[in-house]
Amino acid sequence: MKLVEPTDFAILEYLASHGRNNAVNIGVALGQKRAYMNTRLRVLDDFGCVRRVGPAENSGLYEITAKGHAALAYRDRQHDPDVDFEELVSSAAQSDDESSYDRV
């Protein structure tokens, strides 16, 4: 898992502080195009850092997951050659609930 800096972390920060939202609103807030936000949100969903939420199946709403919160908490370790960032984030998300580590 390699997150795009600063965009992916900005998306995660936005969702962490503002709650669930869609690509249009996140794009406006971050000064990015909707299409790019849709692409990044799909990638973050594939990584398990965000998830699509309803009530409609194709509502386009996303929310941050425990893995997304862990990625934010450990973002400074992403480029550490001695750390497997994906393993660190996955392990933290599995062993801790969302409130047990510092959220951004």
Profile the largest sheet.
2 strands, antiparallel
- Portion of residues in beta strands equals 5-15%
- Find the count of extended strands (DSSP E, 2+ residues): 2
Mean model confidence by pLDDT: 89
Order of SSEs: HHHEEHH
Through-space gap between termini: 20 Å
Task: Give me the Rg, rounded.
Answer: 13 Å
Count up the helices: 5
Helix content: 40-55%
Shape: globular
Major β-sheet strand ordering: 1-2
Low-confidence stretches: 98-104
Secondary-structure-derived class: mainly alpha
Protein name: ArsR family transcriptional regulator
InterPro entries: WH-like_DNA-bd_sf, WH_DNA-bd_sf
What is the gist of this entry?
With 104 residues, the protein is mainly α. It has five helices and two strands, in the order H-H-H-E-E-H-H.
Could you explain how this protein is built, in words?
This protein is mainly α. It has helices at residues 7-18, 23-30, 34-47, 66-73, 85-95; strands spanning 50-53, 61-64. The chain contains five helices and two strands; from the N terminus they run αααββαα. It has a two-stranded antiparallel ribbon with strand order 1-2. Strand 1 and strand 2 (61-64) form a beta hairpin. The longest helix is centred in the middle third of the chain and has 14 residues, at 34-47. The radius of gyration is 13 Å and the shape is globular. It comes from Haloferax larsenii.
Describe the protein's topology.
Layout: H1 7-18, H2 23-30, H3 34-47, E1 50-53, E2 61-64, H4 66-73, H5 85-95
Antiparallel strand pairs: 1-2
